[in-house]
Amino acid sequence: MLNQSIVEQPPILIVGLGKSGLSALNLLLATGISRQQIFTFDERSSQGDLRSWDQAFALKAKTVLVSPGVPLQTANMQKLLLPAGTILSSELSLAAQFLTSEKLIGITGSVGKSTCTTLLGEAFFSAGKKFFIGGNLGTPLAEYILNIQKNGQPRAEFVALELSSYQLENLRGFHFFAAAITSLLPNHLERYSSLAEYYITKLQLLSLTSGAVILNRNGGDLQAAFSKWSDAELIKNPIWTDRRDLSQFDDRPRLLGEHNLDNLALTFRLALELGLPTSCRKGLYNFPGLPHRIENLGSWNNIQFINDSKATTLESIITSLETVRELKPQRIHLLLGGRDKKLPWFQLANLAAATDLQFHFFGEARELIQQQSTLSGDSHSSLHQSLDSLTTQLKSGDTVLLSPGGTSLDEFANFEERGDVFRKWVETIRCK
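User: That's the sequence. What structure does it adopt?
Assistant: Structure tokens below.
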């Protein structure tokens, strides 16, 4: 049992039973809190202890621990948090109470945060440092704490967390040794009342940071938003980086895309600010890229396949197209679709003039995307149907790019599952 008192007091209600919520449950149990004092509820799942919001209200929980995917501003959540003295918590806030000597690094951004967090892990590994990377990237911080307790895993010198805006909404007890923001671009406007609110949520990471702050000069609206941010003057000597910082090096990284040079420059400078040797750059340059993020799945019969299932912003789509065009294909089949996030699809209208593009629309938002973008192409109710249709259209010199723009939640549990469906389709093509 973890020998430490925690802020969370029973009865405790965990709202949301994804990876984060389940990890929080396991950590709470490890602190010695009885399972009878912990209740779970997920509106989208039947796996919870409670079956309705009315049951959740009736519990009168002392602590409400909310998963990142659950918006805090809904009427139901506000009603849960209304009673005086209710403690609002999260998996991250719970786990942070057990950090001791670790140097904590936070990385956020609209795009590029997963790549930079993983790159920093490569730098740590190359430098021989003990480290943990996780958060939004995949492994909850609570699992790191549990591994220390249950498996005797030694503490890391560095803990690097990828942080989504959802996680930054509900973060308590964090003091970051260093932080980085990769970009600010329109995203998640279905959750926030304005673009400014979304940007401010991201920038709040810097208010929790005592050390180096690294910012990407080519990060979309980042410079403009930072200059307007009310707390900007509190950030002393922020360090701005971009791809030009790598011009002193002659070798070429394995990562595809010019935009990834900005990610490399930001991560390399962050590594240096953390005291890592310049030789860690070798680890960064040898990194091939993350799955589902402009992932090169190889070629068959001179047809290239690129899996960018993670792309859920218009800027990600444009970046993917620019990267694929560096490969000089004769024709690009671009798969657009999924569930809409109220993106400004009309901004894609200028792609209609491109002679090297053929569009394929799929999923819940297919008609909306096609209507607002004014782009022409075939339309299917599911990704599976779109891929089946595409199979007969492929020719030598083509590139197939899954860079959908919409979220995966109309058909799939997450973007990884969507990308895996695309990968299996590619494998099927190769076997024919």
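The two ends are 55 Å apart (CA to CA).
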